[in-house]
Amino acid sequence: MDLGIRGKWAVVCAASKGLGYSCAQALADEGVNIVINARGAVDLQAATQRLKQRNPEVEVISVIGDITDPSIRQSLVDAAPQVDILINNAGGPKPGNFREWTGDEWRSAIDTNMLAPIELIKLVIDAMASRGFGRIINITSGAVKSPLDALGLSTSVRCGLTGFVAGLARQKDFAAKNTTINNILPGAFKTQRLEHTLQATAERSGKTFDAVAGNRLASIPMGRFGDPAEFAALCAFLCSHQAAYMTGQNLLIDGGAYPGIF
Fold first, then answer.
1. Which of 4, 5, 195, 253 could form a disulfide with 241 if both were Cys (CB 3.0 to 4.6 A apart)?
2. How far, CA to CA in Å, does 113 sit from each of 34, 68, 106?
3. pLDDT tens digits, 55-105
4. Are 89 and 194 a contacting pair, CB within 8 Å?
């Protein structure tokens, strides 16, 4: 299927590894030019080279820095001739017990996982609407729909972003001008983030890593952790012309782990 986005420009945050990199790769495969961002210079440079080698026909630009910094956000947007696609993504705050989270940790989580995505949306959405094409994807978490106690810090601030998007996506100034905003809620995917979460759970519980991982797998009807490429394929579709009638949606991709009807 031709997704109709060849030649577009995308900004992909936290794209040096994990789900962010996989999304950048899927878009590059579709002929989309990419501006990628991460905080680590070495990993970001390596990701840039891999993307260029994968599809030499697309432009790949890297911007190093923390997206909580307004100047970094502006640099991301300025790096592209125009931003047609925005993939908001950031590593979540550390798992743990709510009694241990400090005020500074709460504020950092809000800045990273709620306010920074909102500010990036603010920088690009009006221009998207004026051109009659825009796709904004927020990578949040399956915990927004099915909370995990250890991820309470992450879940809380991502729910804030989800609530904000629910109203913004339905404004006719954007929805009627082919500018959509959707959230993807990943379950357990084979990433470093999952490994860190499982390790933290093991340390708190006194169980082995393998035991904790086995319990998590047992909760997934498909009996496996997700492949980041599967996540990226959904992301690429939501960026397509074919997905023009979808906005304000929260799409859960978790191997069937969520037990509810809706």
1. 4
2. 22, 9, 10
3. 999 999 999 999 999 999 999 999 999 999 999 999 888 888 889 899 999
4. no
pLDDT in tens, 4-30: 999 999 999 999 999 999 999 999 999
Whether 156 is covered by a domain: the verdict is yes
Closest C-alpha to 20, from 4, 39, 5: 39
Amino acid present at 64: I
Report the pLDDT value the prediction gives residue 200, as an integer from 0 to 100: 83
Rounded Cα gap, residues 131 and 149, in angstroms: 43
Number of structural domains (the chain) is 1
SS3 content of the chain, % helix, strand, coil (to 5): 50, 15, 35
Supply the CATH number for residue 136's domain: 3.40.50.720
Give the up-direction half-sphere exposure of residue 9: CA atoms within 13 A in the CB hemisphere. Answer: 15
Burial of 1 (0-12, 13-18, 19+ CB in 10 A): exposed
Torsion of CA 90, 24, 237, 165, to 10 degrees: 20
Structural domain including 153 reads: 9-187+226-251
100-149 pLDDT, tens per residue? 899 999 999 999 999 999 999 999 999 999 999 999 999 999 989 988 78
Q: Which two tokens stand for residue 119?
A: 């500010």
Is 192 a member of any domain?
no
In a domain, 193, yes or no: no
